[in-house]
Amino acid sequence: MQADLQVVMRYKLTLISKYELYANKILVLLVLMCDKSQPLQTLEQEGWK
């Protein structure tokens, strides 16, 4: 039972991290669309910290 619980927790953690990466990408895209005067490099640095 303990092993099953660990597998489920690990699966949930990977899901959460994937969702966070996806949300970060959307955030960067939104900022890009709103403010095109700012360089892409600084946006990526802010988005992937």
TrEMBL record:
Name of this chain's protein: Uncharacterized protein
Record organism: Pseudomonas corrugata
